[in-house]
Amino acid sequence: MKNDYDVIIIGGGAAGLFAADAAINQRASTCLVEKKKLGGDCTWKGCIPSKALLKSSKNAEELKHHEAYGLHVDGEFHLDYSGVMKHVRAIREEIGKKETSEIYKQKGVEVIHGAPVFTGPGSVAVNGRSLTSKRFIICTGTHPVVPPIEGLDAIDYYTNENLFEIDSLPQSLLVLGGGPIGIELSQAFNRLGVEVTVVEMSDRILSVEDKEISDFVTSQLKKEGIHVLTGRKAVAFDSDNSSVTATLEDKNGHTGRTSAAKLLVAIGRAPNIDGLSLEEAGIDFSKKGITTNDYLQTTNSRVFACGDVAGPYMFTHVAAYQAYICVRNALYRKIAHSKVDYRNIAWANFIEPEIGHLGLTEHQARQDYDDVHVYRTDYSDLDRACTDVAGDGMLKVITDKKGYILGAHAAGSQASEIIHPLVIAQALRIKFSRLAKPMFIYPTLSEIVKKTAAQPLKEYLDRPLIRFFLRLLRKV
Q1: Residue that finishes a domain, picked among 244, 269, 294
Q2: Can you tell me the distance from the alpha carbon of 159 to that of 49, in angstroms, rounded to the nearest whole number?
Q3: Same domain, yes or no, for 31 and 112?
Q4: Rounded Cα distance, 266 and 88, in Å
């Protein structure tokens, strides 16, 4: 039986749009099914609005500290934050104009808006219409986890799904969750004049980061006035007309209470799989998402999955990488299939100090390898950091005994950019010390890579045997 399409992509978020572009570029007949707007969480509720908010808050922070740059304001200085959320939504709309159904239809993708339901291993129903396809790619993303805490369901709380729709900022904000989303939004709101308290159940915020980086960032956030409560679990909520109060419990069972005008829940994400009837297509899943193999193929050989709904990393650049692999594996015979490879995984957190993360943390490296070397350089060693009044920061690189990069972690201005030479070096199996050889532009923050890479070179040159041979060479 002839199928309606070569590939049906379910979900029009970041992963779905990447997959649609890749499929249509391969001249495959492609259908994209999305319940709401194209762009998904990244455009409308995540990456784009949060980064716009962070940019506004960064500018506000620099204006408040204008004297650090030798600037002086005549008369009274006052910042009005009332237009910030309107600005954020305007940026979101501008990005959304590049991801409309009309644009994708012009590319040759059939776009259907509706809720898809699998009706068999090779068919879905959308808006009462039955569609068949040779292959399917599921890219339905995730939604915020809301924990079953006593009293929470009676509170008008925020998540990333409704936070960017508010028009006025609250006087104070209680943030439940010290992960990337919670911390980014905490700093942004704090810098915009909102008193912020973060509650994190783990011993530290940003627990996926290297501990040294996490501790450094925590100290910087506290200096800005953010209240950080770690090792505490929210066990109950209650509210009145003016505030929300959380009952917190520490690991010893001791309880305390903290209040704020509003509550933001940011403790994690759950896969968007309800209503898809995955069982009808023989697709296994769990509370973490859709089960896939190394080829991103589900337990139904005709169906693939990518992006946040498949995991294990929830980043747009990972979604793009997975989408390409899904399309390749879906359209071509198994002899041309490609496996996913996360050995070169990197990400960033766009708070200040910015975080760049590559590969293993020091703790992970010491667990997996017998001989580990760690090299550090502070931003204060950089002339550009001095000119930019950005001396608080560090780069930390972890190598194996042969000098190959196991992990790299930066915290400071432009850390997400600084980490990229190390990403390339790790991916191409270039020894870390070789990054000390090329000329780096002066003055730049990226010089920190060269300075740090010179440390293992110095170690090598300081070996007694090497020093002996160098002395001989000088006498020749």
Answers
A1: 269
A2: 13
A3: yes
A4: 19
Contacts of 268 (CB under 8 A, 6+ apart): 144, 145, 177, 179
Q: 107 and 122: one domain? A: yes
Backbone angles phi and psi of 337, in degrees to 5 = -65, 155
The mean pLDDT of 65-85, rounded to a whole number, is 92
Give me the residue label for tokens 């969750």: 177
The pLDDT of residue 1 is 65
pLDDT score at 475? 77
Q: What is the pLDDT of residues 99-115, one digit of tens each?
A: 999 999 999 999 999 99
Q: Are the C-beta atoms of 12 and 39 separated by less than 8 Å?
A: yes
Q: How far is 39 from 108, CA to CA, in rounded Å?
A: 18
In a domain, 350, yes or no: yes
- Structure token pair of residue 112: 């259907």
Q: Where are the beta strands (DSSP E) in 139-231?
A: 142-144, 172-176, 195-200, 227-230
Measured CA to CA, the distance from residue 216 to residue 225 in angstroms comes to: 15
Query: Buried b vs exposed e over 431-442: b needs ≥16 C-beta within 10 Å?
Result: bbbebbeeebee
Q: Is residue 76 part of a domain?
A: no
Rg (the chain; Cα; Å)? 25
Structure confidence at residue 471 (pLDDT): 80
Q: Which residue's entry shows tokens 């490879």? A: 341
203 within domain boundaries: yes
Question: Cis before residue 456, ω within 30 degrees of 0?
Answer: no
> What is the identity of the amino acid at 256?
G
User: Phi and psi (nearest 5°) for 410?
Assistant: -120, 145
Q: How many helices (H) and strands (E) does the chain have?
A: 14, 23
Closest CA to 133 of 110, 114, 113: 110
pTM of the model: 0.93
Q: Is residue 13 part of a domain?
A: yes
Per-residue pLDDT reduced to its tens digit, 417-475: 999 999 999 999 999 999 999 999 999 999 999 999 999 988 877 888 888 787 888 87
Computed over every residue of the chain, the mean pLDDT equals: 95
Instruction: State the DSSP H helix or E strand holding residue 231, giving kind and residue range, or none if neither.
Output: none
Evaluate if residue 326 carries a pLDDT over 90: yes
User: In terms of residue numbers, what domain contains 459?
Assistant: 346-464
Q: Indicate the number of domains in the chain.
A: 3
